[in-house]
Write a structure and sequence with these properties.
alpha/beta; six-stranded mixed sheet; 1726 residues
């Protein structure tokens, strides 16, 4: 029983563990969204096609559910939660749920538990939006954050959509959208998809508050060219280029004044459909429709722009998962598009064909027509008359307005529901419109939902009802038709006897007559437009919503899609806006009646006087008030006020013996003044009749007085001359301000005053400076902000840089150049004629006349007397022989003034001046005054004087040593290679001395040994110091002709004369071959330490020597030397030469095995493939057997055995350890790195002035303060191209607030490329990067010579440029480990690649680094082809080391994969993890070359134009690059990939994940910036080498170093002119699958027995489409062009397609699939 329970328990545990494992690694990823907008949530839901990812919206009321999710997104903007709900989010985070909060406006809500890497990724996905980004985000969460193992797609990097693009649904992938950066590109796409209609109207759709796909599709289907625009900065530019007929703005706010002005000037219509932020069902039942801030942004602000038809179009739908999406409501979409069609048609349709219905308001019965302040009938008549004049078909118009009024009373009357008899007579005699039931019901069916019509039937019965119905069941509608223009009374909206309800409607549905009047207008008359005339209609008073109407609201259905105009009074804006929002009317305001003042002040004059007396008594100027007098005055005021009846208006008592209080008297005072100043109307307005001049003047008088009076009061209040109490007492306000304002207006209207600044200052009592300041404040307050500010900043003209004009530069430059040349000529001639001119080298002789100098000798100096004096000053009195440096410096300066840029300007001047001083001092020390040259000495008076002073201070020896040190330092300053040269010279002296000593001792030992062992029948044998038997011609360096034999092994070099130099010192043993006779010759050692053998000379072999590494050197023997047998191991005869190879040191604990026992053959490194020629050596004349045994092993010699004792292990001293290491540079030991002088100093002395810095600082500070941001401190750091302003904000100022002002600061500084870093990492300050007016060029010269680069200990140092702090920026490519470079055309990307390569050439030895250069453009990297024998790598058999052909790129990349695998095998065998550890072991000789080990150089693969390769070869390129990117770091293979516009189609997620180091030059859009560096910024750079370098966590702005083409040519020529290897570093051979290389990818295309694996699928595709081309196969199957071409050749051989016909698609020979299957069967027999 216990076993059963135990088994059951184990089973239960296993099940639980299985469930746990499933949930952790395989289960569903549940993601919650809190407070997200529907459009964003809907987009994410649409992008989710993974059933293992579940999304859910969680309301703030249910935050306790968050613990059950794997990931929680919280939208912090506008999030309103209480502390308890906030704790629920935190509780979920504490339980391990991943929480990410975006845009938190409240810091307390900013809860985030994911790391910065994931934050950057998610921010990029969410910020960019779009289906692909959302899908990648969900996959990223499941794979990288939730760590699930199944149903996981590789997430791509964020694809940022630019903020300035046109977009369109991808017709090939309907779920995706395509972006277009130009109108031309967009129209080209439309034409390619047959969507563009020539001559059709153009409509711009902007804003993305909902999914506009349905709207765009519908507009395209009805015949419009639609341009969806997503833009903030360039909207106006797009609109100007498109020149649309209409704009549909779905945005949440205004377009901006500039855009609106442009639309007004060109009469471009602006539509503003609404997006309802709720479900369709909820919205339809909502009595308000839309309210609050959402209504303000969606309705009010578009109305300010002049938008029309602000009706609801988009609403939310819920999917089966419970997620919401915003789509266009189908029924409303149809109506909205029809309205756009009809509105646009009004602009082109002839007036004579337009059909218009005009609704006027008239009460029931014979009541007159009325409107707010307008004479209705005359105005309506004038309108009809004007329409007739404009070409409208207005027929049978009465002669005057009186006749029209009679006609309206007779035929256009309105009746109350009780006037049955009058209605009957009207229906019989007044010719109304009679509507049948069939017509009415057909209209109802089109316009109304069944439930809406049911409301009418429920309230008024079946059609036609009782009101305006005839006996035969028809419905009468009042109307008067004048041809195509119909006027109709506004129908009765309600029923019953209540006149107000009849006009304004009730809470029930309107009657049939009301509905029929509007439906007839839509469907019966088919009106092109409708007009409500003179006053509000009843549409806005029908029940239901006030805004954002739906299909259940009467105004929406009754207006339908007909364009609606509303002529309304400007004096009632509120009702006009309601009419606009409920009836979709376009308001056309008419004027109010003219104003007049009531002029009743005289009636209240006595009352005013009594109130003044009261005020005087109550507030005497001196002393205190007399209460009795105050009471008496109050009773006097009350008596008169009661007699005028004012107490009733104000609700005061009338008891005359009780005085009014002070407050009550104040009420009377203000009431009387208001009555006196009240404005009244002078007459009604008649449309088409202008006001009289007197009425206009009275209106201006009335409207202008109050603003002036209140303005004067405001000024006095600021000055402290008035307070709020003045406004309480109207009489005081009138006396002090209102009356003077009236008099002022009167003088202005009469022309007595001229309005100018002086007059304004006089009236206001201010100075002109104060007036100017006030205007500036007003201008700043009303200045456009936001998008308008950005556009204005972008369009602002850059101010001219102040400086010297070109004319002045040339004048000053030529003047200085002339003087410099004159001085140079004078100095040169002084060197020859200084003795002859000694008598005239005084300034007094310069100005003497010819008569005074007649007896003096003629001046010999070529510069005359002035030249002789100047030369004496510079040479004799100055710097002696080196005085010539002064004119040289002046020449350089003159060229600079003329804006020529001499190479290395600053350095040239600096070096020349130092040379002048140091040279003068040296000559003065060496010769002093011994040589009376120049009258003083070779060093000049300056050099001699200072030298004598130094000798007196530190002595002669000290001065000499000081000068020697100075000269050495000067040489080092010129070229750092001087240090290496000094080291080599010193080391050579020491080594040669040591070698001479060792040679002498070794020679003596050899002679003694030779004499002791020589016999008649045996050859003399000489033992080396290490015990190895010496052989002839065993010197490790042999010179042979390069034409004799092919390359032998990696030790071979080629010298300048074409001879192959063989270095055997580090070569491993090669298999022994049959020996051949050795060559003999004379042996010499050249300057570089190489042994050169002259095969024609006959000399005796010199004795063996031991080199500095402890290896035996046996020099080649002559013909007379006796041959020695080849040793058992340790040497190999190659060609005609005999070699002895060094063996690895044997440790003390190991027993050295005899080399003869080793069978391991050396595997030649893939880098250098070499044939092994037959080996030969001198054949022994006897059969003597030599055994090399360890010293100490007891083995005796015999006749048939010669014992050679191997030396025991030697312990090296500390000084000898370094020399015993393997030196990989020994093959090219004479190689010299390029000198710095090959580079030019392009930098120009450009300085940022203090004025510029202070001006920018003040503008930044002013801009921030204008937005209410206080700052405590600003610090400026001047860089080469930008200046960094560091800001410390005041406490309480949010960083985001400053970040959002980026565009405003750019506008203020009138500069592009402003970038805000908030905050600066590690500093806690905010940085604002501002481009300098004058950009400094960072030359490659300056950064290569920098100490930071020269002393860098990085494995692969790459110097890129200088940072903002003017510091040299150096990175280690080995730690990157790969680099991604991107930038738009012309922004410095190619220069950046050249900088990378140049820095590598200056730092690495050819043995340490190899380059694989891929250049699809074939022109960018060709300059480096000269480095083939030094730095380049290629595959065997390739002619060019620069790879340009696509299929060769594929081969090379796969070859690199083989090299990578081979290196990993070597690392595994060496038991190390990375290349540095491996090479360290090899250098210390811990790895045996006989076992395949070799020194591994770094390989840097540089690929330019990567996008072109991907487009051409696709996966065949991507696969090897992905492998290298993921694995090659440890074995020293590094990628540098450059492309113009990186996208996920080019840089896939797998590749990009292994490229943490990225360089972004200036790109055209924010999308590109986010793609390359995962954040904005690159789109704000200023170009010309300005770049952002991302090294994973940090983002650094760097000015790229400039290196020009001539500099690269000089560097490559310098390197190519030195000894190099036989050829390029050879990569392993790569053989594609299938073998061979006759096809594009390695297989034979004409061999039908080896068909491609995709042959049948491609064949079916071609036959089904009856069209075949290589490009279509490439696109359809996502393969490279070469493979597609091979498949096409196989299809041709199989008889499926015809032969190629140029660029035309091939003819398909097979017509059906059945025939194709027969061919497949026949091919199976191959």
């Amino acid at each position: 029983m216990r076993k059963k329970w135990l088994a059951l328990g184990c089973l239960l545990i296993i099940v639980l563990l299985g469930i746990w494992a499933y949930n952790v690694w395989f289960g569903t990823t549940k993601i919650a969204f809190v407070n997200f907008q529907t459009i964003t949530m809907g987009g994410i839901a649409k992008a989710n096609d993974n059933s293992f990812i579940k999304l859910q919206e969680v309301p703030v009321e249910e935050l306790d559910r968050l613990s059950g999710f794997d990931m929680v997104f919280v939208n912090g903007m506008g999030l309103r939660v209480v502390e308890e709900q906030r704790q629920q989010i935190q509780k979920a985070a504490d339980k391990g749920v991943l929480v990410y909060t975006t845009m938190a406006t409240n810091p307390a809500n900013n809860i985030c538990t994911i790391d910065s890497v994931d934050q950057v990724a998610l921010r990029g996905y969410l910020g960019s939006g779009g289906r692909r980004n959302y899908k990648n985000m969900l996959n990223y969460i499941r794979k990288n954050m939730d760590k699930k193992l199944i149903s996981v797609e590789e997430p791509g990097a964020p694809i940022e959509r630019s903020s300035d693009v046109l977009y369109h649904v991808d017709m090939d992938k309907p779920g995706d959208e395509l972006d277009f950066i130009s109108v031309e590109e967009y129209e080209k796409y439309l034409k390619s998809k047959q969507l563009y209609k020539e001559g059709a109207k153009k409509i711009v759709v902007t804003g993305q508050m909902a999914d506009a796909t349905g709207l765009i599709d519908t507009l395209e289907r009805v015949g419009y060219n639609v341009y969806p625009v997503l833009s903030l900065r360039r909207l106006l530019d797009f609109v100007r280029e498109i020149s649309p007929d209409a704009i549909i703005n779905m945005a949440h706010g205004r377009l901006g004044d500039e855009v609106v002005k442009y639309l007004e000037e060109r009469n471009i219509l602006l539509f503003a459909p609404l997006t309802v932020n709720s479900l369709v069902e909820e919205w339809e039942q909502d009595p308000m429709g839309m309210s609050g801030g959402f209504m303000s942004q969606s309705i009010v602000t578009p109305e300010i722009d002049g938008a029309i038809r602000t009706s609801a179009l988009f609403a939310q739908y819920e999917d089966k998962e419970g997620l919401r999406h915003s789509f266009a409501v189908p029924s409303r979409l149809k109506t909205y598009v029809e309205n756009i069609q009809k509105t646009l048609a009004l602009k082109e349709k002839p007036n004579s064909e337009k059909r218009v219905v005009i609704y006027y308001y008239k009460g029931p019965g014979q009541s007159a027509m009325s409107a707010a302040g307008m004479e209705v009938v005359p105005s309506l008549y004038n309108l009809l008359k004007k329409m007739k004049e404009e070409g409208y078909r207005v027929e049978n118009l009465p002669a005057n307005s009186k006749e029209l009024e009679k006609m309206i009373m007779a035929e256009g009357a309105v009746f109350g529901t009780y006037a049955n008899g009058v209605m009957d007579r009207f229906l019989k005699e007044s010719h109304p419109l009679l509507i049948s039931k069939e017509e009415y019901e057909s209209w109802v069916k089109q316009a109304l939902r069944p439930e809406k019509y049911a409301e009418v039937v429920a309230a008024f019965g079946e059609f036609p009802g009782e009101y305006m119905s005839t006996a035969d069941g028809k419905l009468g509608v009042s109307r008067i038709q004048f041809g195509n223009v119909v006027i109709m009374p506004q129908p009765v909206a309600g029923g019953g006897d209540n006149a107000f309800q009849i006009v304004h409607g009730t809470d029930v549905a309107p009657p049939h007559s009301y509905v029929a009047a509007y439906l007839w207008m839509q469907y019966g008359f088919k009106a092109d437009a409708m007009i409500h005339f003179g006053t509000h209609g009843s549409l806005e008073f029908t029940p239901k919503k006030q805004a954002a109407l739906c299909d259940l609201d009467w105004p929406d259905r009754l207006v339908g899609s007909v364009p609606h105009l509303y002529i309304y009074s400007i004096g009632n804006v509120g009702e006009g806006m309601i009419a606009k929002r409920r009836g979709y009317g376009v308001l056309q305001s008419y004027l109010t009646p003219p104003f007049m003042e009531s002029n009743v002040r005289g009636i209240y004059r006595n009352l005013t006087e009594r109130i003044k007396i009261y005020n005087q008594k109550a507030y005497p100027e001196k002393g205190t008030a007399d209460l009795k007098e105050v009471e008496k005055a109050a009773l006097s005021v009350k008596e008169l006020a009661v007699s005028l009846g004012m107490h009733r208006e104000l609700g005061l008592d009338s008891v005359l013996n009780v005085p009014y209080t002070e407050e009550e008297i104040l009420k009377i005072e203000n009431f009387a003044d208001e009555l006196a100043a009240e404005k009244v109307t002078g007459q009604l307005y008649t449309m088409g009749v202008p006001y009289e001049a007197a009425r206009i003047e009275s209106s201006v008088y009335s409207m202008a007085t109050d603003p002036i009076a209140y303005g004067l009061f405001g000024l006095d209040r600021l000055r402290g001359k008035a307070d709020a109490d003045v406004l309480k007492r109207k009489t005081i306000f009138t006396e002090r301000y209102l009356d003077p304002a009236k008099r002022l207006v009167g003088r202005l209207l009469n022309g007595q005053e001229k309005v100018d600044d002086g007059f304004i200052c006089q009236v206001a009592g201010i100075t002109k400076e104060e007036l100017a300041q006030a205007r500036e404040i007003d201008q700043n307050r009303n200045a456009p902000k936001g998008m308008m500010a950005m556009m204005m900043a972008a369009a602002a003209k850059q101010p001219e840089v102040k400086g010297m004009s070109d004319t002045k530069r040339w004048i000053y430059g030529f003047a200085l150049l002339f003087f410099a040349l004159f001085l140079a000529v004078s100095v040169l001639s002084f060197f020859f004629f200084w003795k002859d001119d000694q008598s005239v080298t005084d300034w007094t002789h310069v100005f003497m006349s010819s008569k005074e100098t007649v007896n003096e000798a003629r001046v010999q100096n070529w510069g005359g007397k002035l030249g002789a004096v100047l030369a004496k000053t510079v040479v004799a009195d100055g710097f002696g022989l080196f005085g010539l440096c002064i004119p040289a410096v002046l020449i350089i300066f003159s060229l600079r003034i003329m804006r020529f840029r001499p190479a290395m300007l600053r350095k040239s001047v600096r070096l020349t001046l130092i040379l002048m001083i140091l040279g003068s001092l040296t000559l003065g020390f060496l010769f002093r005054g011994n040589w009376e040259v120049f009258g003083t000495g070779l060093g000049g008076r300056h050099g001699i004087s200072i030298a004598e002073w130094l000798v007196s201070v530190i002595g002669t020896i000290g001065t000499g040593l000081l000068l020697l040190l100075s000269i050495v330092l000067y040489a080092i300053y010129i070229n750092r290679n001087t240090i290496s040269m000094i080291n080599r010279v010193g080391k050579g002296i020491v080594d040669n001395g040591r070698k001479v000593g060792e040679a002498v001792s070794t020679t003596a030992a050899g002679i003694l040994s030779h004499e002791a062992k020589q016999t008649d029948d045996a050859k003399p044998e000489t033992k080396s110091k290490k015990g190895k038997k010496e052989i002839d011609d065993d010197d490790p360096f042999i010179v042979r002709s390069a034409d004799d034999d092919p390359p032998l092994y990696p030790g071979e070099l080629i010298d300048d004369n074409g001879f192959t130099i063989v270095d055997r010192s580090g070569a491993p043993a090669l298999p022994e071959e049959e020996p051949r006779p050795a060559r003999t010759g004379k042996v010499e050692v050249d300057d570089a330490g190489f042994v050169i053998t002259d095969m024609n000379a006959k000399t005796a072999p010199p004795p063996p020597e031991k080199d500095e590494d402890g290896f035996v050197i046996q020099y080649a023997s002559g013909d007379e030397a006796e041959e020695t047998p080849a040793p058992a191991t340790g040497k190999t005869d190659i060609g005609t030469d005999t070699y002895t190879y060094p063996e690895p040191p044997v440790s003390a604990t190991e027993t050295a095995c005899p080399p003869a026992q080793e069978t391991q053959q050396f595997q030649s490194a893939p880098a250098y493939t070499a044939e092994t020629p037959e080996t030969s050596g001198a054949e022994a004349k006897d059969d003597a057997f030599v055994a090399a045994v360890p010293d100490g092993l007891d083995i005796e010699e015999r006749r048939d055995l010669t014992v050679e004792r191997l030396p025991g292990d030697e312990s090296l001293s500390d000084e000898e350890i370094e020399s015993a290491l393997y030196d990989p540079t020994l093959d090219l030991s004479s190689y010299q790195r390029p000198p710095i002088e090959l580079l030019e100093d392009h930098s120009v002395e450009v300085s940022v002035t203090s004025e510029e810095i202070v001006e920018n600082k003040n503008r930044i500070k002013e801009t921030l303060e204008n937005f209410g941001i206080k700052i405590d401190k600003i610090k400026a750091t001047v860089g080469p191209t930008v200046t960094l302003y560091e800001i410390v904000q005041a406490p309480g100022v949010r960083i985001s607030k400053i970040k959002n002002l980026e565009d405003d600061i750019a506008q203020s500084l009138a500069a592009l490329g402003i970038r805000i870093i908030a905050p600066i990492p590690g500093k806690g300050t905010i940085g604002i990067e501002v481009p300098n007016k004058d950009k400094k060029i960072v030359s490659m010269y300056s950064i290569i010579k920098s100490v930071k680069f020269q002393e860098s200990d990085y494995d692969i140092p790459v110097v890129l440029g200088k940072t903002i702090q003017d510091e040299t920026f150096v990175i280690d490519l080995a730690k990157m480990p790969h680099l991604l470079v991107a930038g738009a055309t012309g922004q410095g990307k190619s220069v950046g690649l050249n900088a990378i390569i140049t820095s590598l050439l200056y730092k690495k030895h050819p043995s340490e680094l190899k380059l694989v250069l891929v250049d699809p453009k074939k022109v960018e990297l060709t300059l480096y082809s000269k480095l083939e024998r030094h730095f380049l790598a290629k595959m065997p058999g390739e002619e060019d080391a620069i790879i340009t052909d696509t299929h060769k790129v594929i081969y090379t990349l796969n070859s690199l994969c083989i090299e990578m695998d081979a290196r990993y095998n070597l690392l595994r065998a060496a038991e190390v993890r990375k290349i540095t550890e491996y090479n360290d072991k090899f250098i210390h000789r811990k790895l045996n070359p006989n076992k395949g080990h070799r020194f591994l150089p770094y390989i840097v693969v540089i690929i330019d134009e990567f996008a072109d390769l991907i487009m051409t070869a696709g996966r065949e390129i991507e696969t090897p690059i992905a492998r290298i990117a993921q694995l090659a770091r440890a074995v020293g293979i590094h990628l540098v990939i450059a492309t113009q516009r990186p996208t996920t189609n080019i840089i896939t997620g797998v590749i990009k994940a292994n490229f943490p180091a990225r360089i972004a030059f200036r790109v055209t859009s924010m999308v590109d910036s986010r793609t390359i560096i995962d954040q904005p910024g690159a789109n704000q750079l200023i170009g010309r080498g300005d770049m952002l370098v991302s090294t994973g966590n940090d983002l650094i702005r760097v000015q790229c170093a400039f290196v020009d083409t001539p500099e690269i040519e000089r560097i490559t020529e310098f390197i190519a002119g030195q000894r190099g290897y036989v050829g390029a570093y050879e990569l392993p051979e790569y053989t594609p699958e299938g073998g061979g290389d006759t096809g594009a990818a390695g297989s034979k295309p004409n061999d039908l027995s080896q068909l491609d694996a995709m042959f049948e699928d491609v064949a079916r595709f071609v036959v089904q489409n009856q069209q075949g081309s290589t490009s279509s196969i490439q696109r359809r199957f996502s393969i490279g062009y070469n493979r597609a071409g091979r498949l096409m050749d196989q299809l041709e051989m199989a008889g499926i397609v015809g032969k190629a016909e140029g660029s035309k698609p091939r003819e398909v020979l097979i017509q059906d699939i059945l025939s194709l299957e027969h061919i497949f069967k026949s091919l199976d027999n191959f």
